[in-house]
Write a structure and sequence with these properties.
The protein is mainly alpha-helical and about 200 residues long. Among the domains are: about 70 residues, 3-methyladenine DNA Glycosylase II, Chain A, domain 3, CATH 1.10.15.40; about 60 residues, Alpha-Beta Plaits, CATH 3.30.70. It is about 40% helix and about 5% strand. The strands form two sheets. Strands 1-4 form a two-stranded antiparallel sheet. It has a two-stranded antiparallel sheet with strand order 2-3. Helix 1 crosses helix 2. It is globular, with a radius of gyration of 21 Å. It starts with 7 loop residues before the first helix and ends with a helix. The structure holds iron/sulfur cluster (SF4) (3 copies).
């Protein structure tokens, strides 16, 4: 599937629209580092529309409709579509290592170093990215009934997208500030050497 777009601006807009149709769990099961890179790959013709297990057949149909191509079944090589789940931390086993917080793309885990952590269920997308980093295996996935959600799938995806983008902006800002601190520290050390 190769789709030609008129210019970069139009391409970016289309990527954004395609990205907005994806579940925004940022789980990487599609083979890309998040939903937007997968949307970009589809536009470039480097990925097919049936690689997102969280989106399932409904998601594939939406992508097919948007791109005006025939729909197709989910490619099982990328995983299976599971019912909605959220992470739950067995708090008495948590050692407060904060590794799960670092792994969560939507900041859905609360906690501080050496204190027990907890998942904000309403913000959890069920991506499972916090499971592997936990050194004591105290994070489990629990099913959620469809009725328990006040928001539609589209609203949940939009919320996850906002939280993910906010986290990315914060991390970018943190990196800029860290680089600035390092620069200032080097300048102070260089001045101290000159003064000797
Ligand atoms: S939700 Fe779908 S598109 Fe987004 S990273 Fe996971 S598999 Fe890829
Ligand atoms: S708490 Fe775990 S499963 Fe839930 S969004 Fe964060 S990383 Fe994903
Ligand atoms: S990774 Fe596991 S042990 Fe570490 S803070 Fe998270 S839940 Fe607790």
């Amino acid at each position: 599937m190769k789709v030609e777009w008129i210019n970069t601006q139009a391409s970016n807009t289309v990527v954004e629209q395609l990205n907005a149709l994806l579940p925004q769990t940022q789980c990487g099961q599609c083979g890309f580092k998040g939903c937007r890179p997968y949307a970009e790959a589809m536009i470039e013709g480097d990925a097919d529309i049936n690689q997102c297990p969280p989106g399932g057949d409904e998601g594939i149909a939406a992508l097919a409709d948007f791109l005006s191509v025939p729909t197709k079944p989910l490619n099982p090589a990328f995983g299976i579509h599971k019912p909605k789940q959220v992470a739950f931390i067995v708090e008495q086993d948590c050692i407060g290592c904060v590794k799960c917080i670092a792994a969560c793309p939507v900041d859905a885990i609360l906690g501080a170093a050496k204190f027990m952590h907890t998942v904000i269920a309403s913000e959890c997308t069920g991506c499972e990215l916090c499971i592997a980093p936990c050194p004591v295996d105290c994070i489990i996935m629990q099913p959620v009934s469809a009725d328990a959600d006040d928001l539609s799938k589209r609203e949940k995806s939009a919320l996850a997208k906002r939280r993910y983008e906010a986290r990315c902006s914060r991390k970018k800002q943190d990196a800029v500030e860290k680089a600035e601190r390092t620069k200032q520290k080097k300048a102070v050390l260089a001045n101290m050497k000159l003064a000797k």
